Amino acid sequence: MSNYELIIGLEVHVELSTKSKMFCRCDADYFGKKPNTQTCPVCLGLPGALPYINEQAIKDCIKIGLALNCEISKDSRFERKNYFYPDLPKGYQISQYRWPLCIKGWIEVVGKNGATSKIRINRVHQEEDTAKLVHQLGISNFKFPISNEQKLTLIDFNRSGVPLVEIVSEPDFRDVEEVRDYAKKLQQIFRYLGVSNADMERGDMRLEANISLREIQNSKSEIRNDELPNYRVELKNINSFRFMIAAIEFEIKRQTEELESGRILKQETRGWDENSKKTYLQRSKEEAHDYRYFPDPDLPPILLEEFQISNIKSQIPELPEKKLERFKSEYKLSSYDVEIITREREMADYYEEGVKIGKEFEVTPKQIVDYIINKKVNIDEVLPAKLVQAIKSALQVVAIDMGELERIINQVIEENQKAVGDYKAGKEAAIMFLVGQVMRRFKEKTDAKIVKEKIEEQIR
Amino acid sequence: MKIDIKHVAKLANLPLTPEEEEKYGKELPKILDYFNKLNELDTQNVEPTFSVIDLSNVMRNDEVLPSLSQDEALKNAPKKENGLIKVETIFKK
Amino acid sequence: MDINNITIKNALEGLKNKDFSSEELTSKYLERIKKIDKELNAFITVDEEGALNQAKKVDELIQSDEDIFEEKKLIGIPFGFKDLYSTKDLKTTAGSKIIDNYIPPYDATATKKLKDAGVVIIGKTNEDAWGHGSSGENSDLGPTRNPYDLTRVPGGSSSGSAAAVAANECLAATGTDTGSSVRLPAAFCNLVGLKPTYGRVSRYGIISMASSFDTIGHITKTVYDNAKILEVTAGRDEFDSTTPDIPVPCYTTALNENQGIKGLRIGISKEYYIEGVDKDVESLTLKAVKHFESMGAVVKNVSLPHTGYAMSCYYILVPAEISSNLARFDGIRFGKTRDQFGNEAKRRIMLGTYVLSSGYYDAYYEKAAKVRTLIKQDFENVFKEVDVLIVPSSPTLPFKIGEKTDDPLQMYLSDIFMCPINIAGIPSLNVPCGFVESLPVGMQIIGPQFSEELLYKVAYKYEQETEYYKIQPKI
Known about the structure:
The complex is a heterotrimer. Chain A has helices spanning 55-67, 176-193, 241-260, 306-313, 320-331, 335-341, 345-360, 365-375, 384-415, 417-424, 430-441, 448-459, and strands at residues 4-15, 53-54, 71-72, 75-76, 79-82, 92-95, 102-110, 116-128, 132-135, 153-156, 163-169, 205-215, 233-235, 268-273, 278-284, 294-295, 302-303. Chain A is α+β, with helices and mostly antiparallel strands. Residues 137-149 of chain A have low confidence and may be disordered. Chain B has helices at 5-11, 18-35, 70-74, and strands at 59-60, 80-81, 84-87. Chain C is an alpha/beta fold. Chain C has a single domain (3-470), classed as Amidase signature (AS) domain (Amidase signature (AS) enzymes, Alpha-Beta Complex), CATH 3.90.1300.10. Chain C is built from 16 helices and eleven strands. In chain C, helix 5 links the parallel strand 2 (78-82) and strand 3. In chain C, helix 8 (223-233) runs antiparallel to helix 16. Classes of the chains: A alpha+beta, B alpha+beta, C alpha/beta. At the B-C interface, helix 1 and helix 2 of B face helix 11, helix 12 and helix 13 of C.
């Protein structure tokens, strides 16, 4: 692909972890629940039912927008995205199109050469999830095109209406590493904000990609640098992050080959077939949807004042990027250490609590981070104060006892020359007698293995 | 004015008979012609009205209420199986 | 008791004085339905068992609690419910073939409020399928006839509700009004029909036609009865985001206030008195205006300059919303498949889909939404000068069954004096203003948003002096 430059835009969907659904009062936590037991007239799309906005979801969506440096719209609206599919009970999805909640953001990602680039966010908007289609036999790799035996589909509406936030990037990604880093950073942000579990395997967070290739600039090229190719391939309905990356990599190869052999690529939607490890055509441009968006007459607009936005802003915790920089400079930690310690907000908070307590006991931030990483401390079980205590006593064991231990070992060797002789003559068991003697005289608890090693050192 | 009736019917997911296609193919352009009257009005500086009453930020607290029972939810579904609603034909997403 | 000459007001007094029981009252209406409804076709479902059970329950309550009439304002009153209202465990068809077997698992908010107020639901009334129509002829379950002339339409879409009340099959009936659907049948059947302010009554659970136009009204013989029902149904609903939190007045109390018509400023808009309006209809409406003048009202000529654009505006925006609202009828969770839609529903779905489709949104939908602003402003401007407007309800008398079915545009023009009111979201009350031979004529009293109390007061004074409601159909 040396002659071509990769151009990718991403759409990320994330399910919010609110208690109730987006437009009705059903329980939104549908995972593992008995099918069709968390529905009501609204999320089943029964005749006459009307939506009612969940305020928490709106706040969460704005938080995501703010975390991604977006402008928050003063006048935003819900709109109807009209299309037909069995998982969409109303025949339209309540979404946002002309009046999204958040616009014009950005985030920095690291690409394959370690270089940082800015990805522009076009919009962050609020919508609702669809129902879940279940294959008759419960096989999850529901795939297109549908074969005869797959024609029977079952629907569970528990997921219908769960709040979903969509984050649409500009086509600013230039390599797959950037895509990976973006997904990782978004996931981390969602978790820091506490708005979603963002578990990709469970489907809390889903990706769609638009991919095209652009001929690399040279003096003869007529294409301007900022001009996008006149086609793009959408990768959709791919339910795992791993498969998405595989699909992107396959597309890069496929499109390069096509272009190099002089073929013209067209706008189309493709899916991923895990069996053949290939993408396949789902829909061509001619069959593209016409969603007939219009403002949802059932829902009055959301008009925000500056103070309401600042209010939400003040509820946003320190985000991973900032925290990472601060930990580095404030606690003098290595990049490796901070990366691990700030990966999750709970861990970072735990660490800082430990640092605070550590100060009183002359335990340094570095010692704390080492201990947490080396001992794989379970932060749900060990309180920060206990942690500091443990580090403190570990330090003491090492510092005081070594001198004392050596003194006792020397004493025991001197007093038991026979045993020493036996050991040297090949009686391995004799050393255990010496270990026992040392252990008895040494008041504090210690490890027999360490004692044994020390004695061996002395005798040799 | 000519309307691609087949395309509109497809968007609307509405199966039409050839007779219906012909009928709506004749009627719709007539009705749409009548609408052209609106072009007499200059609306360049007019804001559209999407709601006639002055309401905004109508939102509720994030609280859960009891859902319908599975029986109630499935009661009207023509086809169902093991607590799920069944569809026999599926069309491309 | 004589059900031909009874109103909600009399019936409540009769029940309170124990002159008759709710069961007796209910039985009388059920008998009447059995006798005449084959001919009239006002009901889709008659719930004899449910109605009698409810009546018995009500009678027990009345026996045991003297103050029940304060608490349950419509206790024991037999109602017909338009078949767009979700009624838990009682079939709700929308007058359509698609859901002719649908049993809602929940009550509409208005249904629930009326049930809580103690009404007895006699059954579900016929209508143009999905509310699409002005004559009742678009019902997939057969047209309803006008009790005043069985060869004519009763008006629609709440055709069954109006016919049932006019023919004494129930004491009151619920309706919905998106472009004329409460007022036109009320006008054609000599009844009082309210199209309230948009958002005054919750739409939750009432099958949507066009969500930004739909209003939830009702049909009665008298103004008092009408006001009494609105006291029950109006108010904010935490299941309908478009119901403002505006206090609900005690409408019936206001009727008895001593304040008369003196000084009331009535507007006559020249755009509603035009070529093509039936001369008798126009002269009866103007006669009513004269009557108000004689009672001390001041009449002013006003203008609503964008009235001529209302039909186009309406028939772009409404089908657009319809095409989306009817998308949920896909035969998966309930009902039959989409090929079963009737002719008019299909026509509107096609039209609405087209005006929203790629490349046409700006030219049609957005343009019409802007014209909507202009029409709404017309009314706002006029209500700076006058208190109410009085205009004809329909440009014609009740027409013959079949007369307009082949020409959708002619049929749509039946709503010409009514749909502008829905475009602006303001309230309008149809009040009977006389007869041309045996055919009823109605007029609209229109006010600014949330002026229902004023409309009732004005109509009440007029009704007290004219008493057209006493003229019964021969059926």
